[in-house]
Amino acid sequence: MLDKGRVALVAVVLATMAGAPRALAEAPAASTVPTAEDFGALPSLLAPVISPDGKRLVARSQVEGKPRLILFDLITNKQEPYSIALPDGHDLSSYRWVGNDKLLITLSSSASLLGVPIRFSQMIVYDIATRKVVPVVTGHGFGTDLTYVDPAGKFVLVTAQKTVFTYPSVFRFDFSTNEATEIVKPRERVWSWFADTSGTIRTGIASDGKKWWIYYRHDDRVDFSKSTGRTIRDDNNQIDTMAVTPDSDQGYAVATGASGRFGLYRYDFVADRLGELVYENPKVDVTDFDLTKSGQLESVSYTDDRARIRWFDPELKGVEAKLEKALPGMSIQIISMSDDRSKLVVWSTSASNPGVYYLYDRKVGRMMVIAAPFDQLIGKQLADMESVSYTARDGLDIPAYLTLPPGRAAKDLPLVIMPHGGPFARDEWSFDVWAQFLASRGYVVLQPNFRGSTGYRRQFVEKGNGQWGRGMQDDIDDGVKWLVARGLVDAKRVCIMGASFGGYAAEWAAVRNPDIYRCAISLAGVSDIAAQLKYDRKSFVAARYYRNWRDRVQGGNSVDLDAISPAKRAVDLKVPILIAHGDADTNVPPIQSKMLADALTKLGRPPEYYVYKGEGHGFSKPEDQIDFLKKVEAFLTKYNPA
User: Any idea where the Peptidase S9 prolyl oligopeptidase catalytic domain is (predicted)?
Assistant: First the structure.
């Protein structure tokens, strides 16, 4: 919730704060242990984005327990911040500027179709001058993707499914008429469409689950031509995303190379082939790239142990170097900038520092605080996080993050292992509220990037195909055994906790391995995999692997999903479990937790089961997050005391 004190903190954005960057970044270690209220207080402000002209700032916050967008005037500093109310029953998915006076906002919700919950995604435009909302387009199942934004703010291109039974179309929404026009009709198997920097849809990627191919055209006066199909699993073959440079048939593509890692290549769209390798990280995948408005390569992004950007633009590369010098030891990201690059929004954080947003005005050479989202934790005792790895039973190297409780001897400690959501996602070296909370209570926390986690080459992801409850779970269990073998953890004092897929992993651990885990904690967990796939088949798969999603989750139909679904195996779940879910969750329907809770209750083993009214896939009310953390602490104290 954005209280008056935090509004005041944000409002200093134009006030010079001499020495503030380093003072906040290097807050001295303290002995005060944060309370559940400290950890449960939601961030005052998240993900600020500056307008193209550098005059306004928009950021995400909470007002009276509901998600809001907060607007700030960066020039006069006279106008009080005001919030944009969002429709009830919708989650805020994304937002961005369209020109200097409009915001494009994406919301998600769920509804029932023939008795089956289905996810919907809706884009709306908020006009700052009139404070009116205009609907853009609604997507069914697949949702909506923003494909292109006109630099002048006259129109946007949006990819959306008109119904759950069709492939996505591309719509042009004109702000002069507030009308959407379908400009590219659905094509069989095409899920992704791409525009060039002038706003013409030039190419699309299609897949039938086994093969993929490309549609391409030089301009919008001709039809698309279809490339030769390739087998998805072929090396040197899979393309994730691409862009065409203006007035040419050349461009760039993020694709797998001989190493199996995604790198950035030049691409010849007429010849339909990859060209020169522009950049490949020696250890991890490239996740994305950006072009300037003129079509020049600006940067690539990747995550090794933490999120990073490699700048090809020498000006921005120099700016980043200056920021790193000003904020030593911190992870620095330029997350937004004005069109003329004179004003930058900078995020500075570390695994043991909850972070600060700065506004860097390059014209006057000053950096000013926008907000410290977790200001209540500044000066409190927090734990260090270490990047580690261990060897799974089949020899696979598993990257992970280890957080130790402050002030305790590193021997025979209690453990809470915490698998991430997704599962085709990953954890990284960063500030994690749950990890810090558990460590402050005396627990070792291990966050494994088990097989199937993204970013570590295509082969690492593919080792997770069909491995729900099997190979993925083995990797989690092997992390426990590794810490026990090191003498760091007491084998008899281990619990597991997670959200979303992590919640599934916690539930399944309680079914499959009561010999390893004393207890389990699941927030918004999946208990019936088949039912969740019917609800939203994109839920579990990173975008670059979506085109053969079923193979990723089910392993080519070779896995009996009921056999690895906790709700179907409730009879075998006999260790204490805490289950929690928001009743407004549009990512994982709350019925997923209810099914397991009901099944256990019928068996005479009712779990600790909590439903948070009005909450989605996570907490939007501080009182609910505080309540959940206190329940977790009490549950662990009872079943695995530190």
Answer: 429-639
Domain shared by 319 and 419, yes or no: no
Residue entry with tokens 């760039």:
252
Which of 382, 402, 426 is where one domain is finished? 382
Q: What is the pLDDT of residues 447-499, one digit of tens each?
A: 999 999 988 988 898 898 888 889 999 999 999 999 999 999 999 999 999 99
Number of independent structural domains in the chain? 2
Report the alpha-carbon distance of residue 183 to residue 185 in Å, rounded. 7
DSSP 8-state class, residue 533: H
Residue in 271, 275, 203 with CA at minimum distance from that of residue 236? 275
User: Residue 581: which domain range?
Assistant: 385-639
Task: Check residue 392 and give its pLDDT.
Answer: 97
C-alpha 84/C-alpha 106 separation (Å) is 13
Please say whether the beta carbons of 283 and 455 come within 8 A: no
H or E, element range at 21: helix 20-25
Q: Which residues contact 81 (CB under 8 A, 6 or more apart)?
A: 7, 10, 11, 70, 71, 72
Alpha carbon distance 485, 267 (integer Å)? 49
| Backbone torsion region of residue 194, taken as left when φ is above 0, otherwise alpha when ψ lies between -120 and 50, otherwise beta | beta
Among 382, 412, 438, which residue terminates a domain? Answer: 382
Are the beta carbons of 350 and 329 closer than 8 angstroms? yes
The CA distance from 419 to 475, in Å, is 10
Reply yes or no on whether the pLDDT at 230 is more than 80: no
pTM of the predicted model over 0.85: no
Q: What is the CA radius of gyration of the chain?
A: 24
Per-residue pLDDT tens for 117-138?
A: 667 788 999 999 888 899 998 8
Residue 28 is classified by DSSP as P
Sheet holding 250-256, edge to edge: 239-244, 250-256, 262-268, 273-279
The DSSP annotation for 488-526 comes to: SEEEEEEEEEEETHHHHHHHHHHHH-TTT-SEEEEES--
Collapse the DSSP code of 199 into the 3-class scheme (helix H, G, I; strand E, B; otherwise coil) and give the result: coil
Best CA proximity match to 501, nearest among 432, 565, 420, 580 = 420
Query: How, if at all, do strands 286-291 and 297-303 pair?
Result: antiparallel
